[in-house]
Specification:
single chain; 125 residues; mainly alpha; 71% helix; elongated
Length: 125
């Protein structure tokens, strides 16, 4: 997803046209759509079911804090350096995050593998 976020930002830098902007936003939407559910799923693999409440709340709060921090920074970039600077910074941050995740990301110890056992009542027993 992070690589697609970077490509979505870079498309606007490469071609300054309305079509590139629309294509970049559509790609960003496609890549961002599953982000919340996938990050929650990855997070759950690090905590037992009875201890997932606080980490989930912190993940949700972190998204809000990310917006709180990034909005003024991006506004400053656009105001002082032009709109393309914001796209460039977001692309670099996305690429860096993808690299960090590729090198360090892995499933936690609570990755549940579900084995479906036959239900004796389902067969009329």
């Amino acid at each position: 997803m992070a690589l697609l976020w970077a490509v979505a930002q870079l498309s606007v830098l490469a071609v300054a046209a309305v079509a590139a902007l629309i294509a970049g936003r559509v790609l960003l939407g496609v890549a961002e759509g599953p982000a919340a559910s996938m990050s929650t799923h990855a997070l759950y693999k690090w905590f037992p079911p009875e201890r997932r409440g606080l980490p989930s709340a912190l993940r949700i709060g972190g998204a809000a804090i990310g917006t709180l921090v990034s909005a003024p920074v991006l506004t400053w970039l656009v105001t002082d350096f032009g709109r393309r600077s914001a796209y460039a910074v977001l692309a670099v941050v996305s690429l860096l995050w993808a690299l960090v995740w590729w090198r360090t990301g892995h499933d936690g110890p609570y990755d549940e593998v579900r084995h479906h056992e036959p239900n004796p009542t389902a067969h009329g027993r």
